[in-house]
Amino acid sequence: MSIPKEPRQLMINLMYLVLTALLALNVSAEVMNAFFTLDEGNKASISTVESQLEQTVSSLKNLLSDESKAKYRPIEPAVDQVRSTINSFNSYVDELRNELIDAAGNQNGEVDDDDYTVSYGKRVPKGKKNKDVTTRMLVDEGRGEELKAKIIETKDELVGIYTKLLQEHGEKFGLREQEIQNRIQNIGQNLPFGIDDETWKDSKDKKSWADFKFRQMPLAAVLPLMSQMQSDAKSSEAALVNSMAELAGGRVVEFDAFFPVVQAEKAYVIKGEPFNAQISVGTYSTQINPSDIKIMVNGSRLEVGEDGKAEYSTRTTSTGKKTLKMEVEVRNPLTGELTEGEGTFEYEVGTRSATVSADKMNVFYIGVENPISVSAAGVSSNELDVRASGVTIKPTNRASGKYVVTATKPGEAKIILSGGGLETTTFDFRVKRIPDPVARLSKSSGGAMGTGTFKAQGGVGAFLDNFDFDAQCAIQGFTLVYVAARQDPVEVVNAGARYNDQARRLVNKAKPGDVYYFDDVKARCPGDNVGRPINTMVFKIK
Known about the structure:
Layout (H helix, E strand, L loop, with lengths): L6 H58 L10 H30 L11 E4 L2 E4 L6 H9 L2 H27 L7 H14 L18 H6 L4 H30 L11 E5 L3 E3 L3 E8 L11 E5 L2 E3 L6 E7 L4 E12 L6 E13 L3 E5 L4 E3 L4 E7 L8 E5 L2 E6 L4 E5 L4 E9 L2 E11 L5 E3 L6 E3 L1 H6 L4 E3 L10 E10 L6 E6 L5 H8 L6 E10 L7 E2 L3 E5 L1
Parallel strand pairs: 4-10, 12-18, 20-26
Antiparallel strand pairs: 1-2, 3-5, 5-8, 6-7, 6-9, 9-10, 11-13, 13-16, 14-17, 15-16, 17-18, 19-21, 22-23, 22-24, 24-25, 24-26
């Protein structure tokens, strides 16, 4: 562009450049202000978690001072180790933050008030826009990779403390070996603190994690990144402390009330059969001597055994509801106090009857085998006649009363019992389609997903969550919509569950910030004549 010779035109051009610069500075200041807002939010989150942690640790130490919790006392030094490890990490990050702030500002070797100014009402470092210092210290001089190593080392220490505690004391805490292993595995996988060492490798021009994170990043953007690492560390500390505190349970409470408990062989018996029951004292302790227990049933005292239970038996001579009136007296072996209690238990004496129960649910589902159990008190399985209306039924083990029901259309069904002197009895059931499956990529139905994880998926799966039957649904097809930043959406129709060539090409384009929509997802389940629409999924690539 040539420089105008006319002074007036030259002045206009200069004013245009100055205005453009001022606009750029204004936008930059707003962005910088947003970074510091994020940094303050992270610090507030850390403060909140720390406050909750102090309460938890204080309560735990108070709990472990009780002699009844002596076996759990190894938890206390483990908690102290976890807290010390996180404090050490956060102090390291604070020192690194201060070095960056000082180097970007006065460079006097000490962070002081001269390093700060006020912008948009916030006290912010003078060198907030400095990219050279962050690049030099964190990338070129290797401090960023040192930070990465510190994060990995700290997480390994946390998991190691928790692992050692459970391996050395888990059985003493009442945990089984498999539960110990599950807890160790889960805590390692679920801690929010760690390193994403995969995303930067997808970037062709980045040589390391630190290069990806910090190169040419202004100080204002680096500070909230570091406070987020500290926030994740504090959240991991809370997760570990809470998990260890749960192991100790609650404080032992002396029982101060006793009540009779009836454990009957049957709550409904046939006339002529005996009614048998065990009657014991609720909250019974092995420290109680049987002679300190008195149990009365309908005015008669029962003999109490060493386990605190008394046997009771009576003949049934008539039908209808029967009531047992029970009284109990217990002398507390700890205080010597005598505590009394009373209660009632009702049972019913009836004639022969029949029942049909679904083994898995109270409905029959189309397309699968629905197992049921059939019983009729006093009627031999060979004499019992089992029929169905609206569905098909066949025995799998007639002697045990096991049958399988299959259905072809929704509506109502009936199971009809007769024979062996039993009056014809009908049981009503509902017939339904299998519930809608859930579409997922791997284990996710939407949200943020890493580039590598997203590209590794071969297609969409349909999952019947919390469905007790052995049934599988198949994806018939879906529409994949790819939306890249500042580009028009690209749509592909995919038949079947697995990606076709066009869909695979769209998936392979995934990069951070892209959004993928899975619309018009259809699945076909056992018993379906045609496919059914199920949930839509939206993934944002991170």
